[in-house]
Amino acid sequence: MNIPDDTKRQSPDNLPINDLSFMSAQSPIPMIPWQSQSSWDPERWRKEQREREIKEWKSRLKQFGAICALSLFIYLFLALIVMLTVTPEAMSNLSDEHRILFIITPEVKEIVTITGLALVVFFLFLVAVITISFLLTIRRSATTIGREIAKGNPGRHSIMLTIGGLFFAMLFLTTTYYLVIEAGGVEPSVPDYDDPLWSQVYLFAMASVWEEVVARILLIGVPLMAFDIFLKRKRRLPAAKYFLGGGFQFGYIEVGLVLFSAEMFALGHIEGWDFYKVIPSAIAGLCFGYLFLKFGFYAAVVFHFSFDFLRIPIEFFGESSIMIVGLLTLLWLACGAMFFIYYSKKLGSFISSELLRQSQPQKQG
Length: 365
Hints:
Elements: H1 5-10, H2 21-26, H3 42-94, E1 98-104, E2 108-115, H4 116-151, H5 159-183, H6 197-231, H7 239-244, H8 252-267, H9 278-294, H10 297-308, H11 312-317, H12 322-359
Antiparallel strand pairs: 1-2
Helix pairs in contact: 3-4, 3-5, 3-6, 3-12, 4-6, 4-10, 5-9, 5-10, 5-12, 6-8, 6-9, 6-10, 8-9, 9-10
C-alpha cells in the first residue's frame, strides 16, 4: 500500500533523527537543556533525606500518642459509666449528709455548707458538668483523632490528644518525682481513701468541677475580664467567654494569671497532702490553666477528671481490673516520657520566642 508523501511528513517516525521539534509540541514533559540542570549535591540530598526521616518519625510518634490517648478516653468512658452507675446510691446517701464548699486564698477557706436536697442537686450538677464536658471533648475531636491514628497527621493536635498528652506527661513527671524523693528517704503523706465508693465518687466529682471553678474561673477568667475592662486591651468580649474560657491568646497578662492560679492551686493542696505535693500540683495547675484558656472550661474539667477518677474503676471492679490498669499505666508512662520532652521543648520555644517577641517595642509604620 502506498502512503502519500504528506502523510509521511506528519509521522514522527519519518522525521530525521536530529529533528526533535515535534516533542516540544506533543510531549507533556518540557525539554530542559542539560546546561540548565543543577548538579547533584550529595549534602543537600542527605539533608532532605534526614528531613524526610524526621517527618516520618514524628508521624509515627504522633500515631502512637493518638492510640494512647484513645486508650485513655476508653478507660475514662468506663470511669464515667461507673460514676453514673453509682449516682443513685450517692444521691440517697447525700440527702442525709452535709458538705462544705470552699475557695482558695491560698488557704482553703470554707464559704458555705450545703445539705439535704441542695446537696443532692449540687451533686447532680457536678455529674452533668463532667458528662457534658467529656462528650463535648469526644465530639470536637472525633474526626481529627481518627486521622491522627490512621496517618499521624502533622500539625495542630486534637483536643483528645492534647489532654491525653498532658496527662501522660504529668503521669510520667509525678511518678518520677515521687520515686526520686522516696529514694531519698522521704515518705510523702497521701490521704486515705477508705470511704465508700459513692462518697469517693462525690469527692472526686467535686474536685474535678469545683476546683476548676475556684482556681480557673475565679483566678483566671474573672481577673482577665477585669484587666480587659479597665485596661481596654482589646475588643470587649462577652462575659460568658471569661467564665467558659477557650480561644484566648497567651500574652503577659494571661501567662501571669495562669502562673498565679497554678501557685494558689498548689498551695491549697498542702493541708490535705503535704509540702511535697506543691511541685506536681503547680505543674498540673499550669496544664489546667493552659487548657482553660486554649480550649475552655470543659477541657480543664476532663483533664482533672482523668486524674481524680483513675482509681474509681479499680474500686468498682475489684482486683480483676488491677492487671489491665497496670499494663495501661506502663503504656501511658512510656508515652508520657515522649510527651514530657515534647511539651518541655514547646514551653521553652514559647518563652524564648513568643514572650520575647511581645516584649520588644513595636516598630512604627
